[in-house]
């Protein structure tokens, strides 16, 4: 239990540091980008990071799906990303590396949440295979149970998922 508390404390400190570094204030309602400034987000990031460092990575998004709205922003300094243990991320990324799982995520974001609805989709395999894929996505944090036999993409994973899919395109 002490290990979990230490990890939680470290995460809270990291969130506080990121909030201080990148700002916590959302843009005003109805804010628009300056005319012609293609790199408005990049320029804002550059203003917030130390010039002597190796840089930073920021992803952000605002998404409306059905009656849900997701706003998300996350940034890390490059030194922290490079210093991290990338092998720990293999399971999270592997969960996305299957066509059926990607299809399931798309269908769930599109409004099909129940296993009965998902089982009706052609090409997803048997019920056992469907449950296997749902377990893999849940274990990796891409899904959570939203009630008995119902699944949802956690709010904090919607924009990151879409960012990964966007980055995967060439």
TrEMBL record:
Domain of life: Bacteria
InterPro entries in the cross-refs: ArsR-like_HTH (IPR011991), WH-like_DNA-bd_sf (IPR036388), WH_DNA-bd_sf (IPR036390)
Protein name in the entry: Helix-turn-helix domain-containing protein
Source species: Micromonospora peucetia
């Amino acid at each position: 239990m002490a290990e979990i508390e230490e990890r939680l404390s470290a995460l809270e400190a990291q969130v506080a540091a990121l909030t201080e570094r990148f700002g916590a204030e959302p843009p005003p309602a109805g804010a628009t980008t300056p005319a012609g400034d293609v790199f408005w987000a990049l320029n804002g990031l550059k203003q917030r990071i130390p010039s002597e460092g190796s840089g930073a990575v920021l992803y952000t998004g605002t998404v409306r799906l059905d009656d849900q709205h997701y706003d998300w922003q996350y940034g890390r300094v490059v030194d922290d990303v490079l210093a991290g243990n990338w092998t720990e991320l293999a399971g999270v990324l592997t969960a996305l590396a299957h066509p059926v799982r990607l299809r399931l995520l798309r269908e769930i974001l599109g409004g099909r949440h129940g296993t009965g609805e998902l089982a009706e989709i052609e090409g997803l395999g048997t019920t056992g295979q469907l449950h296997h894929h749902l377990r893999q996505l849940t274990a990796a944090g891409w899904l959570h149970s939203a009630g008995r036999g119902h699944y949802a993409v956690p709010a904090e994973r919607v924009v990151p998922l879409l960012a990964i899919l966007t980055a995967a395109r060439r």
